[in-house]
Amino acid sequence: IVMTQSPATLSVSPGERATLSCRASHSIYDNLAWYQQKPGQAPRLLIYGASTRATGIPTRFSGSGSGTDFALTISSLQSEDFAVYYCQNYGDWPAAFGQGTKVEI
Amino acid sequence: EVQLLESGGGLEQPGGSLRLSCAATGFTLSNFAVTWVRQAPGKGPECIATIGGSGGVTLYADSVKGRFTISRDVSKRTVFLQINALRAEDTAVYYCAKGQGSLYFLLDFWGQGVLVTVSS
Question: What angle do CA B60, B61, B62 make, to 5 degrees?
Answer without folding.
Answer: 115
